[in-house]
Amino acid sequence: MMDNESLKTLFFETYHGEEIVNCIQCGSCTASCPLASMMDYGPRQLFALAREGFMQDVLSANTMWFCVSCYGCTVKCPRDISITDHMYALKKMAIKHDLKNPKSKMPMMYKSFSDPVKKFGKITDTSVIFRYAFFHPIDIMKNSRLAFNLAKKNRLEILIHPIKNLKGFKKVMTKALELEKK
Amino acid sequence: MKESIPKIGVYVCHCGSNISGKVNVSEVVEYATGLPNVESAQEYKFMCSDPGQQLIISDVKEKGLNRVVVASCSPRMHEKTFRLATQTAGLNPYYFQMACIREHDSWVTENPEKATLKAKDLVRGAVARVAHHEPLTPRVVDINPNVLVIGGGIAGMQAALDIADAGKKVFLVEREPTIGGNMSKFDKTFPTLDCAACISTPKLVAVGQHKNIELMTYSELIDLKGFVGNFTATIKKKARYVDASKCTGCGICSEKCPSKKILSEFDHQLTYRTAIYTPFPQAVPNTRVIDKEHCLYFKKGKCKACEKFCEADAIDFNQKDEIIDVEIGSVIIATGFKTFDPTPLTQYGFGRFKEVYTSIQFERVNNATGPTSGEITTKDGRKPESVAIIHCVGSRDQNHNKYCSRVCCMYSMKFAHLVKEKTGAEVYEFYIDIRSPGKGYEEFYNRLQEEGTHFIRGKVSEVTDIVDDPSDQGKLTVVAEDTLARKVRRIPVDMVVLSVGLEPSEGMQDIARMVGFSLDSDGWINELHPKLGPLATASDGIFIAGCCQGPKDIPDTVAQAQGAAGSALSLISREKLAIEATVSVINPNRCMGCLQCENVCVYGAISYNPALNVCEVNEALCKGCGNCASTCPNKAITVKHFNNDEIMWEMEGILSN
Hints:
The complex is a heterodimer of chains A (182) and B (657). Chain A is mainly alpha-helical. In chain A, 61% of the residues lie in helices and 0% in strands. In chain A, helix 8 packs across helix 9. Chain A is globular, with a radius of gyration of 19 Å. Chain B has 657 residues and is an alpha/beta fold. At the A-B interface, helix 2 of A face strand 24 and strand 25 of B.
């Protein structure tokens, strides 16, 4: 893994994280976060660690992976910090530079969602489940009862129906990736 | 009357070693001697000292010099000194020019040779310029000794009293029906817990009775014209529909008034008042006012209950608004503040939950003349078991007011103390940072900690009526992260107090435009200088006091009010005022009345004369900045002492090496 100093530079400069120096540590983000109780650190503490350079602690935390993008924190932040955007930035950074916590299942979970989108233009239940199950079969077993109940109520889509004009969608995606590289 | 042959004396100053450390002064003197029109050139250790100035004076007399050049520091430092010396020597003070060889040369040039060369250039420029100087005479104007004070809060009252006690006439204008301002709404004051009414009501009475104060309540400034020492203020006295000379303040009219359900402004919507009313029992003047908007007679044409019952025969439905002009020499602005309206912060539920109060409402709840006669109870009459006080509501927030309102931490702690004392309830203070800089303030914070107040460091994210424990049904839950204990807290409380910040009063923009001062991005008045001119504005003769300049507590407000009163007194006691001669003049033959100069003048010194279709300069307001001269497309404007001729000759001199 890269050292703390260069990780901070990477986060601040390439991923526009320098805005977090404005944080006054009021905690209104953590208090409005519906998943704060599941997180290793609340957003407030994550930013406190990041700006003091404890980037390895930041990247091995589950905080950003648990963010559900409800934007509750961003709306209430008195310093107008785009907290949710920084969560995305940290996730992106972790994947792109292979800095994710090796013990965490979350990156795989995210990938199980994004891969079907690339392939079919949308997510479907079975495509997500199968991808995730391949790496973490035990987790899926634990949830099999839920899957069974959903299927009974006709709430589990078994066949995969890609979107109309998948070719067009893929063109859009290619262009988007191209633009991002610039 | 330009002397035909200029005879110039050049004096080069060593300034200790400030100049001579880099510049070869003797070389500059020798060089200056050879310049055209220079009669004599000399050097001296400190030109600004008494012997230095004497040198100039005796040379003028003995050698018959008629122009003086001093090469020394910046004109900002000593231009006045040397102009005075020139004048003492018997010359026009504007026959003097300063070459700045310290700030512009010796302090900023590394190489001594280059520094000496630059000094020579600057001296040559000054010599070339001074030969073309024109004699100017400063104008002297009379100063009207009356003062206008706008705003009758604690700042305005204090300033008015100080000036009136000095024997000068004061016009005190207040928008509301009574003086007293925000302070008269408070219960106790921090950190000493004096009763606000006990210390402010004597001031109200003193203002009301002072023979030198002409009190104009329920009145507004609608125009201000003129310049320092000679202003004319136009004031609108709104009709009260009650004859102040007859009203005894007995209150029978309010008792009989049938319109009783009007939300009280003084109690911040917590109680009702009648259509004929007085804001609070100790109001000064104690003359009632009819609120035209809600009065049945004005709405439907019948009622007149007040008129029937008034024994003094004071009700006069035919009263009209009155417009009056007053002549004054100086103005003190003391328009104060209003509190932030927390309705846009929907997460705090103000207006949605009846037990959420703003701090100014809570002041009224605590006050003996307030809605509950000073008892702290919920709206359904229960004693609260726990109370949450939320700091920084609308302050320190990029989406609302970016600044810290400065007083909220302290008044919040005062509330915590009062709640504890009156009800014994648990008090939770949700703060981001406690700011208690002031005499006895930190000690007060410490006292609150010892009283068992819960200080929770975290901004509240939500106030909700959803409770975690069914037994708390009917309470409000306050959610915040306890950032020091690293826990998200959900605390059930009976009452919530929002410590709202301070904002500039309504209508500041209008007054700023009328009086001629600027507001900062938050709407507070810009003072002349943040350090050395905190009570003055960019307009001469206009002073400021209290919260109109920025949030502050009562002691600071009173200190400023007394300071502003002192500044105004120092001005009006001079009786006469000399106005700087370096002002702009408009040549009416070249002016085409395009008004471009009026647009760029920041001092409001230029006005348009429609009869002649030209613009004119008010010399008393002009500061000689030159904005107008550089804007004028017809070159009709010249700035005295900085006219094109003088500037071109100076440049000619500097560049002619």
